[in-house]
Amino acid sequence: MNDLEVRQLRYFVTVAEELHFGRAAERLGMAQPPLSRAIRDLERQLGVRLLERTTRQVTLTTVGEVFLRDARTVLDAVAAAGRRARHAGQATPRLRLALKADNDGGLLPRILSAYQHEEAALAVELVLGARGEQAQALRDGRADAALLVSPFDDRGLDVEPLLTEPRLVALAATDPLAARSCLRLADLAGRRLPDGTPADQDPSSAVHGSVGEPPRTAHRGLVAGTHQTATDMAQVFRLIELGDIVCLLPAWVVRRYTWPEIAYRPVSDVEPATLAVAWPQDARSAAVAAFVRVAVSVAATARAEEEISQKAVI
Q1: Around Cβ 306, how many Cβ atoms within 10 Å?
Q2: Which of 64, 106, 137, 296 has its CA 20 to 30 A from that of 113?
Q3: 265 contacts 168 by C-beta, under 8 angstroms
């Protein structure tokens, strides 16, 4: 079998996503007949059938589903290689750090300050994004290091934990649940997270509610079916105050936002949040290694200071 070309993979992935040769050709900016020929040539080259075609529809075969997954992985790797090469070729290289605003455990200023004293340090460029985007930014070459909050997809990444703290539920101060000192997930039945998912679902997925995703239901007097979109923490807290949603937040976020209209309560059966620094497994950058080393050291110092503070209070 001859080596496959990136062009062939891109053609196939586009057809597999559209399941329609006309739409796929339009997306690729080409005519439909040469696209159809290219897919037939690919199948002939592989010796397998990737697509089932009828006059009414196009569907993936079982083999096609497997090939689609691997083809996407290859295309992502090629795109990542291009981004990393362009980044490495810049006259003034930078270390690109992916993170979600407010999800640095309060450590970022100290990490950046200490990092600049490292011999291998580069200027740091922050790559801000929504929750869950940081791991993918590492894999596709948009970032060199990242601060991630559990749970996250660590495929292809090396990870060092920095900080672990409990999650609390943020709810309206007027919510009847605010009268309790501690809650369980089952107590949140009927309430929704910012992404619209039920707040009382399994802890491993219940924490996926995040800023920037629209609630799909309204509660406590708001018009049913209203779709609000929260793009920052201020908007999230406004929706919580109105009784539209609740939100599970790490304790380090809670410490930053004290609103009289918002009550925070521990939820005994929700897994704690772990902040970690992550980087691609194949990274060989001295600047990345220095950043990771500094992040781990700063976090260890912060934990020690917190323990001393707690003992002093006792």
Answers
A1: 12
A2: 137
A3: yes
